[in-house]
Amino acid sequence: MTDRPRLTTTSGAPVSSNQNAKTVGRNGPVLLEDYQLIEKLAHQNRERVPERVVHAKGWGAYGTLTVTEDVTKYSRAKVFKPGSQTEMFARFSTVAGEQGAADAERDVRGFSLKFYTEEGNWDLVGNNTPVFFVADPYKFPDFIHTQKRHPRTNLRSATAMWDFWSLCPESLHQVTILMSDRGIPTDPSRMNGYGSHTFSLWNDNGERFWVKFHFKTQQGHAHFVNEEAEKVIAKSRESYQEALYGMIEEGRFPKWTMFIQVMPEGEEEQFEEKTGWSAFDLTKVWPHSMYPLIKVGEMELNRNPENYFVEVEQSAFNPSNVVPGIGFSPDRMLQGRLFSYPDAHRYRIGTHYDTLSVNKPKSPVHHYHQGGEMTLGLATNPDAYYEPNSFNGPVEDPSVEEPPHKYAGQVGRHDYRGHADHYSQPRALFELFDDGQKQRLFGNIAGAMQGVPQFIVDRQLAHFEKVHPDYGAGVRKAIAEQGRDDAEASLSTSHSAAAE
Ligand code: NDP
Ligand code: HEM
């Protein structure tokens, strides 16, 4: 015996051998009674949980949010107490690739944050882009189908992507960001994060403000062009994991400055009258000139997880996790996400996903949910298992009720995306690009359109032209210069029916 701990079964009994199966004689068959062998094999069969249906490939780390400014006039949330420090966990991800996908691919990056506040967990499940491809949750599963594999070829389909985008011009803004230099950040520390949606804040006086959250990288933006990314991927599919894990191990802690944009409740009507954009349309930003960035504090990542599966794979972010002082908005995409994420977690990691270490709030948790698979722990007050009760069970706190919303209107399937101006904001972005950025944008789009049928290319070019004549002409020229790659064209999928 050594002083090392004794190997045991999962029920705690010592194990005599972890080398040899129990057989009948030296060359005989294995016995069914070798339960430890059976358990080992059975356990291995259950080592994976389903990967996330989107954002499957990710990288995570713990850190701290330090609030350096006073924004308490907008929100009563404890997390915004001036000078406060709140522990947090971040997970970055690509959207389309599976768990084994390469990190340095052109894609939007997820930017998920979980703040363990003293009044419960606040999750901000955003991206590295301030906008999204679609504005209605009805469109999300369709959009994601175009990003994933074609059911017949099992290949990604450029045809599906451009077919969908060209039929949904509200996607132009996000497509332009995706195809710009910012489409392949070099590593997670070199990109901004955005809450993207309009959320709300409410203060001690019951006043509500609409809000957008921004996290600006302090490391500076850095991106790969396609050729550089290809070289990185040829060497390593794990370049983001290596970079994030490595910099934290070396004590080079990445930081972001947190800002908010604030719009007093009621002003959204003037905003829409003035600009033609809904303040709750996820495909649009609020221009900084109208709603300047207000500094809140700084986020630093400074601790690597000990176990990737336990902490990163089992992390479960919910846009529905808000705390008193922070609320939702009528953004219909956000409303759809409030249902979708907790539903995904119950399926992916189980009913009690919130009791797993990475998800567990650091504030007290008291509720009346009962039982279910893998219920951990015993109730401290077993007689109070229903509500109301006379046995000192937990009670509600009306002081944390958020101010009422003033909604009125006709119930119906209202189409606002059809009326909105989808071209001015991509134009504002396009006009920010210098000539080199524009040329790379054209080249990236032309490359991504390889193999796409001409009628779809033409439909998309018409949108680019509406954004800016130079945008349309630039992409057209880049397509002509790159020529048609027949190998890619022949792999392009099932477009004949639509083309005919
Ligand atoms: P501003 O000139 O005040 O802001 C421009 C913004 O564009 C900055 O936030 C900058 O981010 C960002 N930016 C620069 N290059 C890129 C790129 N390749 N991809 C994505 N973002 C980039 O203008 P407005 O507020 O009037 O917005 C103009 C356009 O800028 C918008 O239509 C939108 O496309 C884009 N944008 C606007 C944001 C907003 O919240 N208003 C946020 C992000 C982008 P950084 O400071 O980090 O360099
Ligand atoms: C992950 C649904 C829009 C950012 C997911 C997951 C689902 C989902 C089911 C997997 C969750 C899991 O298994 O853990 C939806 C739906 C949307 C939507 C239905 C629209 C209606 C968005 C938008 C953003 C976003 C607009 C960003 C602004 C993310 C991120 C993750 C994610 C960052 C990964 C979370 C993590 O790190 O674990 N989404 N999504 N999604 N989504 Fe969305």
Automatic annotation (TrEMBL):
UniProt similarity note: Belongs to the catalase family.
Catalysed reaction equations from the record: 2 H2O2 = O2 + 2 H2O
Protein name per the record: catalase
One GO MF term attached to the UniProt entry: metal ion binding
Source species: Jiella pacifica
E.C. no: 1.11.1.6
Catalase core domain boundaries: 8-395
Enzyme class: oxidoreductase
Principal location: periplasm
GO cellular component: cytoplasm; periplasmic space
Keywords carried by this UniProt record: Heme, Hydrogen peroxide, Iron, Metal-binding, Oxidoreductase, Periplasm, Peroxidase
Single GO BP term: response to hydrogen peroxide
Role: Decomposes hydrogen peroxide into water and oxygen; serves to protect cells from the toxic effects of hydrogen peroxide.
Domain of life: Bacteria
Pfam families to which the protein is assigned, alphabetical: Catalase (PF00199), Catalase-rel (PF06628)
Obligatory cofactor(s): heme
Database matches in PROSITE patterns: CATALASE_1, CATALASE_3
Annotated compartments: Periplasm
Binding site for heme: 341
